[in-house]
């Protein structure tokens, strides 16, 4: 952990006192779309921050993230600059140092996460809530294919390797209709924290 993260860690070594809300679910569930909706709805809330992940993939129109090449990611990881990181779908993902700063300041940080990283998040952060966004498999496959980043075979393989949740989520959002419907559910949950 970096010096800032160590300073933010509580007595038990976990980052706090703020709350990390991890939004997880299968690829194509619409997590980024719902996060963008909630971010707009909660723009006036200074106590809620929406994290921008670091990903070893070029930026594109489908997701608001910070693109990092593999060497820079490995270096930042070795320096302890990521309060949470994981591997998925052949890429490296992380939450940046600002997440640890916001958590240490007592804020709520909302992040697009991974089910594979939930146990590590619970080990590193004093307070974690889990939101599971999902949709039927055929809708997930269609949404992933529409991105144009993967072949049909890669899409099916991605959907088959999604790990199970380690515990029931604090909120489940079935994202099948209008963005506003599921978006209001997420924004209402976050606004009530």
From TrEMBL:
Keyword presence, Nucleus:
no
Q: SUPFAM superfamilies, from UniProt?
A: P-loop containing nucleoside triphosphate hydrolases
Its recorded reaction(s) are: alpha-D-ribose 1,5-bisphosphate + ATP = 5-phospho-alpha-D-ribose 1-diphosphate + ADP
The record's keywords, sorted A to Z, are: ATP-binding, Kinase, Nucleotide-binding, Transferase
Spans traversing the lipid bilayer: none
Pathway of this protein? Metabolic intermediate biosynthesis; 5-phospho-alpha-D-ribose 1-diphosphate biosynthesis; 5-phospho-alpha-D-ribose 1-diphosphate from D-ribose 5-phosphate (route II): step 3/3
Which EC number(s) does the record attach to this protein?
2.7.4.23
Question: Which residues of the sequence carry a binding annotation for ATP?
Answer: 25-32
Stated family:
Belongs to the ribose 1,5-bisphosphokinase family.
Record function comment:
Catalyzes the phosphorylation of ribose 1,5-bisphosphate to 5-phospho-D-ribosyl alpha-1-diphosphate (PRPP).
User: NCBIfam families in the record, alphabetically?
Assistant: phosphon_PhnN
Query: How is this protein named in the record?
Result: Ribose 1,5-bisphosphate phosphokinase PhnN
The gene behind this protein is phnN
């Amino acid at each position: 952990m970096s010096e800032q993260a160590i300073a933010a860690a509580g007595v038990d070594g976990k980052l706090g006192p703020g709350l990390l809300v991890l939004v997880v679910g299968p690829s194509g569930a619409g997590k980024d779309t719902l996060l963008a909706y909630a971010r707009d709805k909660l723009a006036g809330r200074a106590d809620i921050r929406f994290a921008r992940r670091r990903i070893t993939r070029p930026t594109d129109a489908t997701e608001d993230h910070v693109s990092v090449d593999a060497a820079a990611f490995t270096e930042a990881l070795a320096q302890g600059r990521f309060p949470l990181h994981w591997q998925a779908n052949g890429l490296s993902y992380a939450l940046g140092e600002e997440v640890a700063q916001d958590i240490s300041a007592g804020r709520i940080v909302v992040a697009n996460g991974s089910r594979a990283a939930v146990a590590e998040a619970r080990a590193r952060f004093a307070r974690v809530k889990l939101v599971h966004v999902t949709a039927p498999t055929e809708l997930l496959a269609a949404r992933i294919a529409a991105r144009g980043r993967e072949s049909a075979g890669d899409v099916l393989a991605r959907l088959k390797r999604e790990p199970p949740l380690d515990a029931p989520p604090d909120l489940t959002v079935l994202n099948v209709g209008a963005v506003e419907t599921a978006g209001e559910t997420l924004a209402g949950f976050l606004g009530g924290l």
